[in-house]
Amino acid sequence: MRWALKLLTVAVALGLPLSANASQCIKAGGWGTGALESFASFMSEAAMKNSAKARLGDAVKIGPAKTKCEIKGLLYECNSSAKACK
Prior knowledge:
The chain is of the alpha+beta class. The protein is built from 2 helices and 4 strands, in the order αβαβββ.
């Protein structure tokens, strides 16, 4: 019984859903390239948003994006990810 109470306490602390009708969340990601870093970043964030909408529908709520960019040869490559919930 004590372990169940500890498990419940950890679940609440981590913000895990406790009911069956809790919102469905995913980590959405996207990738983009471009000659300018700002364009590559824009493309990766747009791809991430499209991915989230394709999986969870148009009413999806997307959190702040985390974007990392690197220069690869002549182009910038950016990867973006964010938490998306239905």
